[in-house]
Amino acid sequence: MKLDTKSLRYLNPTDWRTLTGVETGSRNHEVVPTSLIATLSKSSVGDVQRSISILAKTNLIAKVKNAKYDGYRLTYGGLDYLALHSLQKAGIAYSVGNQIGVGKESDIFVVSDEKGEQRVLKIHRLGRVSFKKGVRNKRDYARTRIQKERGAGSWMYMSRLAAVKEHTFMQALKEAGMAVPTPLGQNRHQIIMSLVDGFPLRQIDKVPDPAGLYAELMDMIIQLASLGLIHGDFNEFNILIKEEEVEGTDGDVKLVPVLIDFPQMVSVDHADAEYYFQRDVNCVRRFFERRYGFVSDEPGPFFKDAKKMLGRDGTKRLDVNVEASGFSKKMARELETYMKEHGIDGDAQDRNTKNIDEDASDDTENEEDDHEHEDLEQTVETEQG
Ligand code: ADP
Ligand code: MG
Fold first, then answer.
1. Ligand 1 atom at minimum distance from 193 CA
2. Residue 143's pLDDT is what?
3. Substitution site in 1, 98, 106, 108 for ligand 1 pocket (most atoms within 8 Å of beta carbon)
């Protein structure tokens, strides 16, 4: 989805209050009536009406009719503006640059702070369903259990959960000394992190020492498990490779893997932990065989051995720690249920996820299959008629 920031600086304080009012109302109203928007934004109906027309013109809110009354709902564009505005006010992001990634459940942009330093903005977009032809049809657009329970605002809530989870885990992993981007801020469904100067492993055709890199990646999986975690989507899409100069040499470089993309992480105590662990290992194994013709002599690592490392040498259990820093078990369950119900199962399982600057020739799906959240709502509305 595009992120058109043109109007960001033209909105006045009443416009922002009105937009916030629509956001608040959209959490539990399919259609937010103008009178409620006025109440929520503590403005007069007259002022709010002027703002509403500006916000609707720029697609930050959308007009919706139902049987009883007309009103508005927040769009993804509106939520984007609210989050970006907050991150700007906090001095974490200043201007938005190019989009560098499009996934099914996220958009990635380069942003810069006031000093011009580049960072990465990841916008979570749950509830924006894309599907493969023939696998699902429009009938499947009926609301899932969580959408029913959570009501109108489930897409906002779930996207925020994904962002909170990713930011919390990134922070914990960074503190534990793992090679991950530095998390710099989170607001609503957006996170800002440091830019990794590198490319996904998937784009790298040759590595000088496949065995060495393979061992390093397996170590990473074991290290994660010793911290109580399984990445759950550990593969060539989510491992960025940067070049680092080797100290004490004359410009020799080595490849350093940096791990990204954490919304699907699970605890080693998860009921399916072993399955996810093994899947992570197998993804790397398969990729190294296919791409670099490298097959490891060692059959492992195995989950039962990795689990023995848990808490060794006094390491902390991050799966436990994240609960204390704001990502509760309940939130974890809700997000997991939502992802399951929507068939969200990571990058390697879904070739729809790709990077813009990547040769997409071996990706079988194409963009035509992408249907945005807005279409989804239309479909649901008309089908329920
Ligand atoms: P998704 O959930 O859509 O897979 P990711 O977090 O994996 O989202 O990001 C998608 C792509 O965006 C990555 O494959 C990578 O190319 C790019 N990217 C994401 N985060 C960063 C970062 N911190 N630095 C550089 N590139 C990044
Ligand atoms: Mg990814």
1. 23
2. 55
3. 108
